[in-house]
Amino acid sequence: MMINFKIDYADGAHPKILEKLLTTNADQTPGYGEDDYCQQAQAAIQSYLGSTPCEIHFLVGGTQTNLTFISHALKPYEAVLSAQTGHIMTNEVGSIEATGHKIIPLPATDGKVTLHALHTFFKQPQTIHMVKPKLLYLSNPTELGTLYSKQELEELSKFCRQHHLYLYVDGARLGSGLVAPSNTLTLEDYARLTDAFYIGGTKNGALFGEALVLIHPELAQDFRLNMKQKGALLAKGRLLGLQFLTLFQDALFFEIAHLANQRANELRQGLLHLGISFWTSTQTNQLFPILPNHLLPVLSERFSFTIWEPYDEHHSVVRLVTSYATSKDDIIQFLETLNTLYKKDALN
Amino acid sequence: MMINFKIDYADGAHPKILEKLLTTNADQTPGYGEDDYCQQAQAAIQSYLGSTPCEIHFLVGGTQTNLTFISHALKPYEAVLSAQTGHIMTNEVGSIEATGHKIIPLPATDGKVTLHALHTFFKQPQTIHMVKPKLLYLSNPTELGTLYSKQELEELSKFCRQHHLYLYVDGARLGSGLVAPSNTLTLEDYARLTDAFYIGGTKNGALFGEALVLIHPELAQDFRLNMKQKGALLAKGRLLGLQFLTLFQDALFFEIAHLANQRANELRQGLLHLGISFWTSTQTNQLFPILPNHLLPVLSERFSFTIWEPYDEHHSVVRLVTSYATSKDDIIQFLETLNTLYKKDALN
Amino acid sequence: MMINFKIDYADGAHPKILEKLLTTNADQTPGYGEDDYCQQAQAAIQSYLGSTPCEIHFLVGGTQTNLTFISHALKPYEAVLSAQTGHIMTNEVGSIEATGHKIIPLPATDGKVTLHALHTFFKQPQTIHMVKPKLLYLSNPTELGTLYSKQELEELSKFCRQHHLYLYVDGARLGSGLVAPSNTLTLEDYARLTDAFYIGGTKNGALFGEALVLIHPELAQDFRLNMKQKGALLAKGRLLGLQFLTLFQDALFFEIAHLANQRANELRQGLLHLGISFWTSTQTNQLFPILPNHLLPVLSERFSFTIWEPYDEHHSVVRLVTSYATSKDDIIQFLETLNTLYKKDALN
Amino acid sequence: MMINFKIDYADGAHPKILEKLLTTNADQTPGYGEDDYCQQAQAAIQSYLGSTPCEIHFLVGGTQTNLTFISHALKPYEAVLSAQTGHIMTNEVGSIEATGHKIIPLPATDGKVTLHALHTFFKQPQTIHMVKPKLLYLSNPTELGTLYSKQELEELSKFCRQHHLYLYVDGARLGSGLVAPSNTLTLEDYARLTDAFYIGGTKNGALFGEALVLIHPELAQDFRLNMKQKGALLAKGRLLGLQFLTLFQDALFFEIAHLANQRANELRQGLLHLGISFWTSTQTNQLFPILPNHLLPVLSERFSFTIWEPYDEHHSVVRLVTSYATSKDDIIQFLETLNTLYKKDALN
Fold it and tell me: Is B76 an interface residue toward D (CB < 8 Å)?
């Protein structure tokens, strides 16, 4: 059987989540997230957010969360600013544009939007022929596994407030970011510095689910109407409440993320040991080693992974992803296989 | 605790579904419905559809399925025809319009679109100032619990083919319809007579999920791109495959629906026995008794249900819904409470 | 040659408008309505609006004005209330829905929305499954040539303010309404009672053009960005300024409307004299006589008009429209032809 | 008074166009482009298109034409490819995205899309997470005044057909391109090589108006319904017919374009004579000289023009546009003023 380094959502869910669904299965609750479990889950999350009053909504997936939130925040002629490598820019089949809004791509450094790129963009005179930028979209960790530091997020937040931009963070892998060794940001910081962000469950041990935190009061009004309209209001909303309650009442969320990072770290160390270099320097659960093209077909026979982009004529950037469900043995097998292939190479 | 007659999705899921999720939880599969479970579930459903080649896609909820399918089927200036009581018309926050398309309401009889209403509509001359009707949306069972007969569906299908309309059936409660005593339609008939329809899981024992069957070849092209764009491509798509596999491999789907109808029938018999009359005559899991307004507050203390609309000055149409999870005891308690209230009334 | 009673925009433009274009043709002005002529035209119109501060924008046509304004005013989940006979409901190819918004049809009396219909609608409990009504769309004169009185508009305005609805009046034929004998409304009243309305030029002697008056301050923000986005910002915007300047600096607008109504009145008197009855009672430039079906083909040989809808088995409602360009002789010929046909009928 | 080098639509219209409107003003015609003048204008244009059967529609402006056409051509998940400097990408307030479609920016050379850029783009594997490119948008002349050669257009056309892309050319300044000294393309070539293109009137002497030529049969179906929906069906459609008839029956269109190019050439020669260099090399009516920043405020006192973008610390790229209405004297004054400023500079 294939060993998965392609996605961090290849299994069902963390066993504690399934257990919770089992023990509550016969309960009868109202639909659409109006149940007690959702309320408890919201309270559990709010306890991490400090004193900032927030509204928390549970949605099923990341693309859905992005499109429902962004379409809610913008007027027809308003646009999103995003790194050109942003997930909404490249990997969501134009879902934001399908709600009527342009995404303006900004040059990115290691997947990150920089203050410099924003300053350069805002130097252009705004005319009545141009969309009005109104929202800055970041992912943290980024699509390249890198992280914004607390200082970077504070600077971007300040810039946004000065320029009347909403700041929104896509946290599909927020867990992995929050427990990364170099991380300096807390959930409380996100609540303080952004106007909205989401905490990803799908890629952190849930069956599915993202918790969207709305901070700016303008953004909360009638949000559930927009959720329903976009097909994002789950009938059995309790399923989301139950999962996030399980994840946040005993910090399971962080434990799961920590496991993923730990496996990634073991893999990184092993690859470095083999003399392999990396495209971006990451401490989260995504690694981007540079591998020789001629080894990829052999590796693909036993391991699934993503060929990200060409590096040079003979090498490619490859993405390897770990999760709490990755085993130590998966890591060992990958490293041993690669080691064997390298040795063979050396003999030829 | 409240006894639920308000929704048919108040519990978790049928135990066999949870069991299936548990036993497969550790399996590692590809994402986005490209796994074996989805394929097996598609085969299991296809085995009910006869020789018509279909494409089957799994989506999370009904509103999502309707908007993803309809936006896929129509050009910008094309519109949907629907009963004025149709779910997309009244209860989905304008989700179809949000994808750019008008819904033209047709007068409905017992929640059903009639050939007569269609003929009347098509008598109007079409001008370049009017949307072009291109798709007929039906629900079966309807929002009022009524059923189209085989003859009715055949006539509507013929009309649609003559007028170049796609015929689409919203089957949120298709299970309850298929096993209703008076039902004359099979899944094979749906595949033969419609261009697309969906088989509802959410309201028939699943945690969530709808199986969309695309029959007309024009409608299948690139459908998954539109799913992804609308936020309707579940990352852990296997969850849908596993559920529909469980529902269809041993006919559990029909068994669940049968239980819901059986409870509804017991409730109907009891209400008739109390001399209560009904707004629509249904054999599915939705009942619409006409109850005196002054009893509703008392009933609401122990039972949840929907006050559908005023009937006359002193009475309201009430909707009672059952599911496989409704117990015999729930029925008995409701009938006894009502009986007691009626007796008290008689004494005053 | 055919004599036109079908449309009130069958000619080029009032000669004074063409003359203005000729005399200013060589002037070089900035584009997009940033020229002096537009400013002068805005001032000329503002002088009729009293002390209410307004923003005035010039657009090319009515459908364009409706869709640009309405898409500007609403959030994604908000909807328009309109008479079921409203122009945006029936005759603009779903242009409002194409911008993402549902139109909720209200039953209409003589083409008019009534307080009663609004009260009935708002009695329904609002749920998270329903669009949120946010804007009331009226046409005055209506599509059936009828007029709202001052009292009616005041009541509707009050209702809208109480229910947080914007009130918007489509004034495609506002001129004809303003000078109708029974009219009790002034432009100042419109500015006082509505949140936005437009003054139609196309159907009142202009080559093209509608002047949109934005009153509610929320509605004015960034409006020109939305105009540009919808393709509604004319490059040579001065053409609109020049036309509305000509129409409003010496009250030509009212004179043109008066001529149209006068011709309509002559036609009405003549038809009444022939014993013909009317479907709606109008004092504007649209008449809806009820004519025998068997005469329509003969009449159609010399006159163009619209067959509106069947009246009974043997009669149809016909729409006859006049404009300032309709001649007395056109009226006489129509009446004589009809008289001759009636006499022939009487002989058979 | 300011001398205009900012836009090529600063005047009213070519006198012959106004004359035509005057002489036909009293004619009564059907609305919405169903009149004889439109038919004659279509025939006049078709006579330039060779044997390819086309459908020709008249719209009011360029943004409107682009959005109406592109929204007609694409399914929800399909996208446009455009030079990153394309007009729809930068200067139309996200009008294409507002109809639901992503524009994928391609790196541009002198404002032109290259085969190389297309090949590079299509090397990326297409996944279900990415929009499907379906239409290549070009402008000719480009936004930078440059021209595609016949060979380039043939190669791009071939590429598009191989990759199932529609090829669409925005011809806002097509006239200037067609009569440029280096031009090798005829209208017949456009009809042979593209799937649709438009012939710009607004920037070539008309009051307003663009003639959209639909060549691929799939694109023509129901196009007028989409026009009406987008507010792009002019009530007095004859105004467009009359203008294009005037432009094409005696080749006035080409004469007007020739005048604009001639003035641009005089201006170019004068600037070269002053030793000024250019950002792009153009033979059409747009020039992009590189001017010293410190002279721009002084120049701006008498001349209007566009500061396009910074060139280096001390210079800017400036855009100068000419039209048939630019006089020889305008050119002389600009050159003399600049000469004087340069001389002063030399003295300091």
Answer: yes
B46: domain CATH number? 3.40.640.10
Q: Could you tell me if B34 and A2 are in contact, meaning their C-beta atoms sit under 8 angstroms apart?
A: no
Cα C344 to Cα C348: distance, rounded to the nearest angstrom: 7
The answer to whether D72 contacts chain A (CB < 8 Å) is: no
Contacts of A214 (CB under 8 A, 6+ apart): A54, A55, A56, A57, A69, A195, A196, A220, A223
pLDDT in tens, A53-70: 899 999 999 999 999 999
- Residue D347: per-residue pLDDT: 80
Helices (H), chain D: 15-23, 36-46, 62-73, 87-90, 95-98, 115-123, 150-162, 174-178, 187-193, 217-220, 223-229, 238-249, 252-273, 296-302, 328-347
Nearest to A77 among C128, C132, C222 (CB): C222
Which residues in chain B are closer than 8 Å to A99, comparing Cβ atoms? Answer: 98
ipTM above 0.90, yes or no: yes
Check D60 against C234: CB less than 8 A apart: yes
C345: pLDDT confidence band, cut at 50, 70 and 90? confident
| Residue C149: count of CB within 10 angstroms of its CB | 14
Cα–Cα distance between B133 and B162 in angstroms, integer?
Answer: 13
Please check whether residues C294 and C224 belong to one and the same domain: no
A325 interaction partners in chain B (CB closer than 8 Å): 26, 28
Report the CATH number that the domain containing residue B275 is assigned in CATH. 3.90.1150.10
Q: Which tokens is B242 given?
A: 């596993």
Within this chain, do residues C258 and C145 fall inside the same structural domain, yes or no? no
Contact C10, D238 (CB under 8 A): no
H or E segment and range at residue D312: none
List all chains that touch chain C, counting a touch as 3 or more CB pairs closer than 8 Å. Answer: A, B, D
- In chain A, the number of structural domains is 2
Q: Which domain holds residue C319?
A: 3-8+253-347
A143 in contact with D at a CB cutoff of 8 Å?
no
Q: Which residues on B lie below 8 Å from D222 (Cβ)?
A: 75, 77, 132
For residue A52, the model assigns a pLDDT of 87
Residues C287, C164 share a domain:
no
Average pLDDT over residues C102-126: 95
Both C244 and C168 in one domain: the answer is: yes
Domain stops at, among B198, B228, B250: B250
Q: What is chain C's alpha carbon radius of gyration, rounded to the nearest angstrom?
A: 21
pLDDT band at C204 (very low <50, low <70, confident <90, very high): very high
Residues A198 and A257 placed together within one structural domain of the fold: no
Taken in order C97, C99, C104, C110, the sign of the CA dihedral is negative
pLDDT of A243 above 90: yes
Which residue on chain C is closest to A100 by alpha carbon? Answer: C99
Question: Do the Cβ atoms of A130 and D90 come within 8 Å?
Answer: yes
Indicate the average pLDDT of chain A.
Answer: 97
Angle, CA of C97, A165 and A65, to the nearest 5° = 55
- Choose the final residue of a domain: C220, C250, C280: C250
CA A74, CA A92: separation in Å to the nearest integer? 18
Tell me: do C243 and C266 sit in the same domain: no
Residues C103 and C230 occupy one common structural domain: yes
Whether A239 sits inside 8 A of B27 (CB atoms) is no
Read off the pLDDT of each residue in D117-145 and give the average, rounded to a whole number.
96
Please state, in angstroms and rounded to a whole number, the distance separating the CA atoms of residues D141 and D158. Answer: 20
Find which of D63, D97, D99, D120 to mutate to test the A interface (most A CBs within 10 Å of its CB).
Answer: D97
Q: Distances from the Cα of A235 to the Cαs of B2, B209, B313, C242, in angstroms?
A: 19, 10, 33, 57
**Cβ–Cβ gap D98/A76 under 8 Å:** yes
CB contact under 8 A, D128 and A97: no
Q: Which chains touch A (3 or more CB pairs under 8 A)?
A: B, C, D
Residue found under tokens 């050119």 = D331
Phi and psi at residue C108, to the nearest 5°: -120, 145
